[in-house]
């Protein structure tokens, strides 16, 4: 089970993760999550909305009123009375987000409504909070540390490093803090999975995104060993859960090292770099070695009974070795026949 209890040390988005993982939210007939006052209080505890020493009396009054009753009506006069322009804007955004979220009926319905529009009308942070909560809900009760760690990629930017032929990813913000304080980095393994679930804030666990490891056997021989506990396999399971949750029917996603399909007809990039790269490869445009080196993995998506051909997915890092996975891409860029966002 997910048993990370050191909530005082968790970053704000992980509070939303735990709200989903601990089944704090009710679900509707589809299994979609319904926002309640406790969820809205999580939003109000975000750094962007929390009170600070400089908060004016109007901001303090409004924040306290909303913490007591998060769904209470807020007047334009209450918002306009906030002296600081940034704070006023943040509360205006929260009220609009809250009202639209409650009107939508579920976190998932609101999330899809934002994706359907010509442009996203709320800051990406609000959508990351929704993703963290939904993903946490999907991982509730999961005892696979690799899968739980992989699920964080859907809402936390990762930093990547190539070490002894292995591609490791770690939470970027935590990684930068460790580098400044000389903290240790653990590579997640079956041996330390218990430590991962213990949630020690002093330990940072990297996920291995390597397809296979090459062992030198001497005499020029190389033995390629496929990783039994693959971060890519765990990520594929998480992505399949995510898409199944929205489609309502099971899908299968499998990591690939290459696409060897003359009938390749559809692809989806799981991030900006991967989408551009797959588009260029599909159109047979030249791609230099530096861009190809940014490709972390390919995946095959199969939708039995829903779509007759495999859909290929790509995952890539930036030139600065960063990874910002966009789970919405799996929903936005499906073939029209699936009509999830029609």
From TrEMBL:
It holds the Pfam family DUF6352. It comes from the Bacteria. This is DUF6352 family protein. It comes from Roseateles oligotrophus. The lineage of its organism: Bacteria, Pseudomonadati, Pseudomonadota, Betaproteobacteria, Burkholderiales.
């Amino acid at each position: 089970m997910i048993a990370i209890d050191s909530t005082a040390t968790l970053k704000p988005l992980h509070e939303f993760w735990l709200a989903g993982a601990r089944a704090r939210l009710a679900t509707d007939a589809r299994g979609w999550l319904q926002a309640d006052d406790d969820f809205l209080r999580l939003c109000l505890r975000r750094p962007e909305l929390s009170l600070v020493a400089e908060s004016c009396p109007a901001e303090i009054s409004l924040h306290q009123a909303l913490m007591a009753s998060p769904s209470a009506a807020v007047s334009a006069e209450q918002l306009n009375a906030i002296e600081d322009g940034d704070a006023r804007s943040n509360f205006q955004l929260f009220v609009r987000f809250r009202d639209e979220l409650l009107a939508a009926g579920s976190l998932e319905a609101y999330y899809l409504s934002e994706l359907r529009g010509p442009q996203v009308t709320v800051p990406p942070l609000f959508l990351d909070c929704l993703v963290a909560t939904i993903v946490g809900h999907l991982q509730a009760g999961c005892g696979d540390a690799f899968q739980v760690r992989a699920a964080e990629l859907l809402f936390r930017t990762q930093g990547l490093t190539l070490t002894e032929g292995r591609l490791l990813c770690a939470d970027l913000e935590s990684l930068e803090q460790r580098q400044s304080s000389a903290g240790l980095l653990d590579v997640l393994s079956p041996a330390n999975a218990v430590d991962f679930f213990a949630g020690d804030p002093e330990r940072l666990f990297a996920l291995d995104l390597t397809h296979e490891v090459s062992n030198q056997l001497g005499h020029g021989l190389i033995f390629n060993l496929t990783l039994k506990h693959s971060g890519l396999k765990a990520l594929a399971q998480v992505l399949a859960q995510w898409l199944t949750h929205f489609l309502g029917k099971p899908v299968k996603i499998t990591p690939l090292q290459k696409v060897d399909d003359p009938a390749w007809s559809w692809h989806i990039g799981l991030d900006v770099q991967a989408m551009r790269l797959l588009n260029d490869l599909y159109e047979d445009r030249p791609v230099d070695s530096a861009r190809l080196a940014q490709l972390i993995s390919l995946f095959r998506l199969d939708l039995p009974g829903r779509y007759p051909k495999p859909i290929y997915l790509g995952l890539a890092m930036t030139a600065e070795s960063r990874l910002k996975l966009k789970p919405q891409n799996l929903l936005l860029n499906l073939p029209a026949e699936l009509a999830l966002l029609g």
